[in-house]
Specification:
lipopolysaccharide transport protein A fold; alpha+beta; 2 domains; 6-stranded antiparallel sheet; 11 helices; 16% strand
């Protein structure tokens, strides 16, 4: 059962967190407003779209700013308690550091899981709506089904892409023009249950007629179980294909920021079966999971650093020390993700390595908080 003291510290922390989060989100929205408003005005967009764009942006910004807000809230809460000598009074009453800071760590855990839930159920829907408003309505990028394509990619979508069709056929295409609905240099492989190829279709062009795909200037090769086959040339021929042009777009263009964890995991599984490179998507997957837990790590770091620095400085000094450590962590986390995307680190290590390193350091500082000679160079 939570004691009166725990509730007092928790109220202080939540108040500081809400103020910090509101301030950071507000600053982000104001900066983004001045960056985007000219484009909305040039396209003569209604105010409702402008408002909807920023409302839809709030979930992703809240997720992005949550660790920074937790850091600021932890620092300010403990610095104010120290300034008012409340921490000394608590210690005099027999309450240790753990008892003072436990509500902050508990609240950080709750915030992390709330952000994780938001990223799974709310943020993907809001991000998709936000991208549709800005990428399609404002910038004029074409949309096929519910997938938009950047202007510069329209003539070279899906260069040398592989995917598995609904009928289990394996497709390889050199290029797809979504505007004209033409696939260039297509190769389609059908397999026996034992994995051997039973049919192969090669076509210079595959054209969408509105109802069917028409294969142009190609060869149809059929094989038996022993590998013997025959070849038939065709100028134009219709083969059964279940995919529409919108389906093709979805298979070769992926916006991972619009996906939930479940959708991204399913996409990774499908790409693995299709023999595609999944490195970037696996890094994105682990980053989506690990990022909310940065809140816990920063709180774990901020607690001992705030209590140490508050002994020798005021609130601003305390905030400065913690922001410096937070900046260092953010730099290493971003560098780890970049190296993971480059293949230098495994996706798990890229997303979780910095968290484990700084969490261990935070635990060490917390457990040795009252020691007089622990890490002398870090004593403030």
């Amino acid at each position: 059962m939570m004691s009166l003291l725990h509730r007092y510290v928790l109220r202080r922390f939540i108040y500081c967190y809400l103020l910090s989060a509101a301030g950071l989100i507000g600053i982000f929205l104001v900066v983004d407003f001045f960056e985007r408003v000219d484009e909305f005005i040039r396209r003569d967009m209604p105010y409702s779209d402008l408002i909807s764009y920023f409302i839809c942006k709030i979930p992703s910004i809240t997720s992005y700013m949550a660790p920074q807000a937790v850091l600021l809230a932890t620092v300010i809460t403990l610095a104010v308690l120290a300034r008012d000598n409340e921490i000394i009074a608590m210690k005099a009453g027999g309450i240790g550091v753990t008892g003072i800071t436990l509500p902050i760590l508990g609240a950080s855990f709750v915030i992390a899981f709330l952000i994780l839930a938001s990223n799974e159920y709310l943020a993907p829907i809001a991000t998709k709506k936000m991208n549709y408003i800005f990428k399609v309505k404002v910038q004029g990028n074409p949309v096929y089904g519910d997938t938009y394509i950047e202007m510069g990619d329209q003539r070279a979508v899906g260069e040398d892409k592989w995917f598995v069709a609904k009928n289990k056929a394996v497709w390889n295409i050199r290029q797809f023009d979504p505007k004209e609905k033409i696939i260039y240099d297509a190769r389609i492989f059908y397999r026996f249950n034992n994995g051997l190829i039973r049919k192969r279709i090669d076509a210079k062009e595959v054209v969408w007629s509105g109802e069917n795909w028409e294969f142009v200037d190609g060869f149809l090769r059929t094989f038996d179980q022993e590998g013997y086959g025959s070849t038939e040339y065709f100028e134009k021929k219709i083969f059964p294909v279940l995919e529409t042009p919108d389906d093709i777009i979805k298979k070769i263009i992926i916006h991972s920021d619009e996906m939930s964890l479940q959708e991204l995991y399913k996409e990774i599984q499908e790409m693995t079966l299709e023999g595609k490179d999944t490195l970037k998507h696996r890094v994105d997957f682990h980053q989506k999971i690990s990022y909310p837990f940065i809140s816990i790590v920063l709180a774990l770091l901020a607690i001992p650093l705030s209590l140490r620095s508050s002994r020798h400085g005021g609130v601003l000094f305390c905030v400065g020390i913690n922001l410096s450590v937070g900046f260092l962590f953010s730099f290493l986390y971003a560098m780890g993700v970049s190296l993971g995307n480059g293949g230098f680190f495994s996706p798990i290590f890229a997303a979780w390595g910095p968290l484990l390193l700084f969490a261990s350091f935070g635990f060490y500082l917390l457990l040795t908080l009252d020691s007089e000679y622990v890490i002398p160079r870090l004593r403030l």
